[in-house]
Every structure is written in C-alpha cells, then in structure tokens.
Write the structure tokens for this entry.
Amino acid sequence: MGFKGTLRPGLVQLRVLDFDATLNFYENILGLNKVCETKDGRICLKGYDEFDHHSVTLRKTDKAGLDFVAFKAADADTVEEIKDKVVKFGYKVDEVPANSDQPGFGKRYGWTICTGHRFEVYSEVEPAEQQPMLHNPDIWTKPPRGMRAQRMDHFLLYGPNIMEAERFCQEVFGMYVPEVCNLPDGNRLATWITSSNKPHDLAFVEYPEPGKLHHLGFYLQDWADVGNAADWIALNRLKLDIGPTRHAITRGLSIYFWEPSGNRIETYAGGYTAYPDHPQRVWDADQVGRGLFYYSGELIPSFLEVVT
Amino acid sequence: MGFKGTLRPGLVQLRVLDFDATLNFYENILGLNKVCETKDGRICLKGYDEFDHHSVTLRKTDKAGLDFVAFKAADADTVEEIKDKVVKFGYKVDEVPANSDQPGFGKRYGWTICTGHRFEVYSEVEPAEQQPMLHNPDIWTKPPRGMRAQRMDHFLLYGPNIMEAERFCQEVFGMYVPEVCNLPDGNRLATWITSSNKPHDLAFVEYPEPGKLHHLGFYLQDWADVGNAADWIALNRLKLDIGPTRHAITRGLSIYFWEPSGNRIETYAGGYTAYPDHPQRVWDADQVGRGLFYYSGELIPSFLEVVT
Amino acid sequence: MGFKGTLRPGLVQLRVLDFDATLNFYENILGLNKVCETKDGRICLKGYDEFDHHSVTLRKTDKAGLDFVAFKAADADTVEEIKDKVVKFGYKVDEVPANSDQPGFGKRYGWTICTGHRFEVYSEVEPAEQQPMLHNPDIWTKPPRGMRAQRMDHFLLYGPNIMEAERFCQEVFGMYVPEVCNLPDGNRLATWITSSNKPHDLAFVEYPEPGKLHHLGFYLQDWADVGNAADWIALNRLKLDIGPTRHAITRGLSIYFWEPSGNRIETYAGGYTAYPDHPQRVWDADQVGRGLFYYSGELIPSFLEVVT
Amino acid sequence: MGFKGTLRPGLVQLRVLDFDATLNFYENILGLNKVCETKDGRICLKGYDEFDHHSVTLRKTDKAGLDFVAFKAADADTVEEIKDKVVKFGYKVDEVPANSDQPGFGKRYGWTICTGHRFEVYSEVEPAEQQPMLHNPDIWTKPPRGMRAQRMDHFLLYGPNIMEAERFCQEVFGMYVPEVCNLPDGNRLATWITSSNKPHDLAFVEYPEPGKLHHLGFYLQDWADVGNAADWIALNRLKLDIGPTRHAITRGLSIYFWEPSGNRIETYAGGYTAYPDHPQRVWDADQVGRGLFYYSGELIPSFLEVVT
C-alpha cells in the first residue's frame, strides 16, 4: 500500500575478521541487538527500531567485505515479478530456500549484478523477538546503547558499470535516482538510488574492481546523536575516516569510520525527504568533493581508495 | 516509481482573519516564502525546501479554518484512477480547472469526505521559482529564516465518521495506517495515515462537528530547531498550546501554538521511518494522553476542544 | 586563584522515603555514581564529572526534603573568614568534625539562615575515587548513564525573609545577584545568586514556611540531553512538573519533575555566562510567569505550592 | 564580588586586509553587531550577548594578525594592583588614555609579555548601546544572525617562553591553569589559562616567532549551533581548517576556519565548568593530537604551522 517494487534494503551479510572486537563493536558501541547465532557460526543482529528478524549477519573469514545485500518487497507477488524482471534484464537468478542460511527468512532470489555484487529479494521474514512496542508503545522498549543506531539504512557499493546498475534498480526494483554525479564525458561517477522518501537506499561509485563495499550506513536520530557517535569513536579508539560532517549530497549528517574488521561504517542522520516527483540533483565530478564533504569542500583520498 | 496512489499532501488553503500579523507570522516567523498574490487577494506561500509552485494559500475572511486540502499524485493517469475510485467510493467529484484559483496548478478534482472536509487530488503543478538548488546544490539557496520551517508536512482533521475516512484514504489514495487509537467499544478515536515513510500525512480525530482543522504541521530539521521555534514563539508572544514535547504517537518532536488568526500550527521534527509492512501500533483511548504528550502523560483539554 | 569567598555549592543532604525506587532513580535514571554508604545507612552519590568525594547524600526518613546545603571555599583560611563573617552577620555557628557524618569531608561549619535552611561551609574534602581522568584524559572515564547528569548544579529554597538571605550570600559568601524578581512594594519575590559564571548557584523564593526545598538542579550538556532526560522521564513514568522548557531567568533549558520520594528535581542545561560586572536583570512579579516558563509565559500553580 | 584579578578577555584588536569581505563576515556570517567606526577608520564590533561597548576592533592594514588583547578587571583598584604587579614582574607598562583609540573605553595600561604579545588591562568601559535586555528580558533583543556568535570567548597565542607567560597570568592576573601539555623534557608545549569557570580565557603554544595569533574564539550556544556554523562556512565558501570536532582539551566543540583576511576563527561551544580547586589535566606531547582533535586523534599540520 503506497509502495511499488522494493521497500528497502533489509539484510546484509558482512565478512569480518574476528568476533571478539567486532561483535563488541556492533553490539556495545554501535548498539545493535544480537538476535541469534547460526549453526555454522554466523551472528545475526538488528537495530532496536527494526521489526524484522534481523538485518545484519556477520560471517567470520579472513577478508572483510560484503557477501550480499537483500531487498525486501511488500509481498510474495512482487518478489515473483521482480524475479521475472531480473531474468528479463539478463541476470541469472538462483533461489535460496526459506530458513536455510538466514534464520527467520523465507525464500530469497539472488543474482549478481554488473558491478559484481550479489543482490537478493524477499518478502517473507519472521518478526523480530525484540520488536519495537506495538500496544500503547513507549518510544523504546529498552533505552538504546552506545551510538544509538536505530536501523541499517543504506550502503555504498564500488564496482564497474554503474550506469547499468542504476538502470537495473529503476527498471527492476522500481526505484528512482535523487542524485547523480557525472564525469565530463557524461558517464556516471556516482549515483544515489532509493525506493522511498529516504534520499538513498543504496549508492554506487564507478570502480574497476568488482564487488567492493565502500560503507554500510546506520541511521541515528539527529546531529546530537552524530556527536555522541563521535564521542564513542574516540573513547573506543576506532579509526576515523572523516566527520562529523554533512554531505551536500542527500544532505545527511555523517561520520565515516572503520569497525575492527576494517569495514567502513557510516553513522548517518538527517537527509532530505525525497520524492519521485522531485527533480534530480546533478553534480559535476569536479564538485563532488563539496558534495560529499560539504564543510571542507575537499575529497579525501581514502574515500576513493579504501574499500573492502 | 516507488509510490502508488498519492505522494503527499501538497496544498492547503487556510482561512485567516487578517493579513498583517498573520502574513508576518508565516513569512518572518515560521519562515515560509511568499510566492504570489492571486487576483482576488489570496496569498500563496511555500517552504524553502519545496519544489512545487506553492503549498499554502491564505484566504482572508472572518472565520479561521481550512478551505481544502489537496493531495499530489505521481502522474495524470493516477489522478484519473483516483477520481474513478472516489466516485466508486460514493463521493461526488467536481473539477477545478487548471490555473483557476491556484496559480501554477493544473486541473484538480475535488469532493467532500464524510468528515466534512474538502479533499482534492492533482498531479500537474509548475515548479516553484524559489526551488532548492539542483546543480551542485548547496543545502540552502538562502539561509532559512525564523523557525526555519522546511515544508508543509501534515494536518489533523476533526469530524464525524473517521473510520470511513480512514478506509477512504486506504482504498482510494493507497495509503496505510501506522497508528490508531481505539475506544473501548472498538471504534476509532483517532487514526494516523500516510502515503510514504512519513509516520503521518494526515490524521483524524472523531468529532461531532464536521470540517474542522485541529492543526497544520510544518517540518523542522530536528529537536534543536524545535527549541529554536519555541524561542521564536516566546519572543513574538505567540500563544503556546503545548510543547516542546514528544508524541509517543509518530515519535515526533512537537510544539503546538496558535498563529495570529487562531489556526493551530505544529512545528514538528523527527518521527520514525514508517513502512507499510510494519505492524500497526494501537493505542487504548485511556492511554492517548501519553500517546500525544509523552512527557507529561496527560491530555490537555485544549487538544480536544479548540479547533478552527 | 580567581575566586573570592565560596566556589560553589558542593554538598546537599536530601531526605528520601525509601531506597529502592529512589536510589534506582539517582543511579540508573539520573545517572549519578554511588560512592559509599555510611555506617548509619545514608547513601553518598556524585556526578561523573565531579572531582570531590561526593555531592549528594540521601537520608532515609519519613518526610522528603533537605537537611542541609554545604558550600565549598577555596581554602581553610577562607573557611575561617566566612565563619567569622557568619557570626558577625548574627547567626550562631556550630562545627561538624572531619569525617564524622560525611565520609571524606574535612571540618565543616554550619548555621541556620533566616529562611530556615541549614547552610555549611568547608574547604577540605578528599578526591573522589571515580574522578574525571587527569592524564591524557578522555571526556568520560565511562560513558554516562540515563539522563547523563554531569554534576549537582544549584537549588531553589523557599522560606521567609529572602532579602536578608540574599544580603547574607553577598556579604558573607562574596556572591553576586544576576537576577531578581520584585513585588510591586519593592520587596523581593525571588532572587538568583551565584559565586561564579553560573547564572545561579542557589535561588530563593519568599515563602511563609521556613526551610523548604523547591528543587535540586543537576547539570546536563545541552538541549539534546534535556530531550533525552524527558525520554527517560516518560519511559520510567516519573511525574513531570513542567518542561522541556526554557527559563528566561538564567536562560537555562529545563525540566522539573519529581523523583520517587517526592523531591522536585531539575535537569538543567545552558544558561548565560554570568559575570559580576554585568548589570542585574530585574523582573516584575507580574511577568515572572514568562521569566520562569518562557515558552508558555504562564506560571503553573505547582511552582508556588509544591515544596518539600 | 566573587572574582579576584581579571574577569575575562574583553577586547581584541585584529588586523584585517580589507573591509568588504571581512566586515561582511564578522557582521553577517559570524553575527557580531557593528558598534561604531573610529575617526581613523577602524571598526568596532560586539557579540549580541555582550554588555560592554565593544569587544573586537578591526584595523585595516596589509598583514593580518593581532594588535593587542585587553583584559577587564572588576574595578579601578584592581587595575592599579595589576599594573603594579606587571611592573614588579618586570614588564614595562604604558598608559592608554580614556577614549583615545577605543571609543567607550576608560584608561588602559599596556605592556608586552615574553611571547611578544601586547596585553592590556582596564576596568572602565561604557555600556553597549545594544545590550542584552535587563527589565523582564527576552533571551534576545533581536534574533541572532548567521553563526549566532554570542560573545568573544578566548584566543590562542603562539610565541616563545610560554612557561613565563603562564606564570605571568597566574601571578599578575590571578588566573589558574586547567590544562597543560608537556614535552618529554618537562617544558610546556602548550598551556590553557582562565580567570573563571570557562576552561580557557587564553592559551599559549610554544613557538619561536613572537606575537603570533593562532585563533580567536567566539562562543556558540551548543553543538547544534556548531553544526549551523559549519553550514554557514560551506554556504559562504570560507576555508575550513578542521571540524566540527571536539577538543578533549577543554572538552569544547569546535570548528576552525579562516575569515577572509586570513585570521583563524574558532566557533566554540560547550567545554567543562572549570574551578580553581580542580586538579590540573596534563597531556603528554605525543598525545596532544587526540587532545586537540579528539575524534580523529591526529594533529593536522596547519595547527602548528599557520598563524597570523
């Protein structure tokens, strides 16, 4: 009711290098809740303000990065429609059975897009045990911890051929593109894409190596919580990339830093209320430093170079 | 792309008692921009962060209140579909020609719903002269003024038979209902309804007299701007109703006060990110005081008694 | 070095009705740290940002209120000078030996002022075990809890003859008076008094009954933390008096509420930077509603009626 | 009453390169009020929340930097005492007659300290025309503009022999030293010094070249206003040095940037409440990066290299 295509990114599986420091980060510093551990030792987490079973799965291995991202659609019919569109778009789809690798999740379809990332779509997922209250609700079941992350929000992916990826998200997922950054030759340097009023559900930067994760973003309440997140970064000696700052792109308030396994995390708040009838914002590549880091106006080398 | 049915409430026409104090309020205190004056002397305004021609029209008369609210749909086909559904729902539809009473607006369809309020739907509207920037945009074209209202956000309407109005918004507009408040007999006391990720585009409270406006809400950036709005209320001796406070319902941060003509205004920020797949939050009528005014936990008489 | 007379209020002893709910409030909701328990069962607490042994002692009895307030002076000589001035002012002074009723505190002198409150002065006190860091310090030793109260800040006392009390604070403690509220007959209705840049260390309201406590104020970082305190009030069903609001008097951002034993607590932030060379701000009694509650502009009956 | 020695830094004279862009910055972006222009073309400014005649004088010349800083003492006797102490300390004192170069100011004494900076002391100064309200005051006479700077707050000076300068401030001005940073050989790298509850009124960094200004700091309300200041920096294309960030030293929230003439400005908020009885915080030189820029933990070269 109200949405076509996908609703939002609902699940990511991250590769992490260890569980002690990393899990401490996600639970006690970022403030996610641990939901369960799978039989093969992966750990499922969720934000306190999310309703579904879990949104982040951590898999321990020897190389940080992203296994896949999965998008939730409103119902099973939409999932089938999307699957058909994926096939028609030219990607090969496989099916992940219900309750296989992701506890609580129904059937998912998956495929690899041109940028080398595995995308999935699903609609069925069990409600979380630790849902927000529903009957005469308080704003919190329990007070948030640490950085007070509310929910998984978005991700930025690096890979080749992002104009095709952008077209894919529009044609197959029914998303729209609030902002783009163009190279002088008219090609995209970067694109920000969304299903809803969020200014981005995902974004791409053109990059020769496929399948890379630039950052995973979590939503905070506001600028005050962005400041609080920075205090926690400092207290815990996490490695800061940049921030607190504002993106002119999306207008969000942001900090980039690295979790103990080396994946870049963004704690993000604000951002404008996007609508599909709003005109697209367009950035020239030589202005993207200011678009990304509005206060300094300058790109930092790590933004373009460090990915997992 | 991404939305079915209506996108959002896009235009309201308010009745005001004078133009000197009232217009000073909307322009210099609330911070809207004046767009134009109609030939018959109405004044059109918009928030600095809105893209369409205008969103608020003030009509001078001897009784404050609401003339109509109009909802924007994504395209002309959707407008026709909605018109057909309105007729099927049983309301009588009229047509307002393009560029008649509202400069810059295309054709609108209008009808009166069971609560006594005139609703309209449209898709065509000219872009505002004072749009947000689109090419290498700054976050503001000019710094916001006064309370720094970004855009018209929502309204709360009082009238009879709100369960029908709620059903209308779902069936005709494709909206969904994130929260309701029920009386012990199972009837609605109040309902909060949205097209999108906003926790409400509009709300209704059951009330014997038809066509009443409880408040018109404008969106602020965050709790800091809610505090700034309160400072402006005090400095300008506006009459406060309640706040700064938080609603547990929608989780928004809020102040209610009256503009010089006696219409209640809300300066509102925050609120959760709503999705149609989230379960509905349900309030018991005896808990609605806490739902509305989370900090005091108590209903104030003016909330139920003062409408325009 | 830099201050004459007293430095600040450094210790209060409060009467509370029980220890379960009340201590839970002070430790886990307000966020003070428990320091120790005395042999006769009183409990000593401090804010995370205070350096001295403790600042709040809770004594369990059958009537809420205030046993005494104690002011810290810079050194032992100043304490003796103040004692002499108290005697000369006409109050009878007694001596509380070091390490008697208050663990960690050196000798205190005490006396009752005209308003019926017991005042004390001291300079010697052991450092707290849980001090803020001193060598390459982080901003917190451990992250603050709950309402994140930093320190005991001030108190408002109700009693008779406050003009004498005001004169006492100036002549004996070397304080100054940034704001007063006068009755039409020229007498004080209220007075705000400080030793330093804080806009008040204590305040008095004229009241026929002696020795009453209106509220005890704790300092928060800013308006964002005032909002957070309100969320904790709501979540824990504490009884709100008023707020979040701003005082025009002191310009502080404030919430008044009652802790479980019925003592009124203020969570307070902001306030102007006071200096003794600044002219005094003067309020007319008929404007004090706006002075106290800047946003509504109206006095609430409980402010004048409910004291412990 | 309550303070010994100096109250605060009350006046600085800055050298600027032009008046068009620079004055636009101080008035319309930083938000100071223009008070007057001297006969020889200097411009006097003040923060909206300051009571004295003016606090910043701009002198147009061909090299940015600082002409002098002047400290206010509580009364004329204290000024004479300080003058005598300066002479005894070994500096040569001159006298600036009342109403000579600084309109509204009484007699000042001046001298050059070991770091090569001219210091002055005074007590007599006319009240500002644009004072904060005193009778039933609103929090603002007029709403603040731009970055909403409330008042001149502090400065950081670079020059040789700062241990002597620190001792001077203590012995002559009666100040105390909340924080220091020591080199491995026990010498000071930097020192933060105050008269009052502010964590610093001034600071020094050891530097071979005398008489240099690192930055002039202005006080903002809170972290929300620090964010707003950053938005104004970006919108006006001012050159950012670093921030928004937090100093662990003083705990203040900060942005450093350069005004159009090249003087570094800090917009600063927060900071702990300092007291002379609190123990001194001590930084090791190899940790000062984290002390200055708590979030990144790293010194930036410009901090040590760029001064005016």
Notes: Chain D touches chain C through 55 residues (CB under 8 Å). Helices of chain D lie at 20-29, 76-89, 162-171, 223-235, 288-292, 301-305.
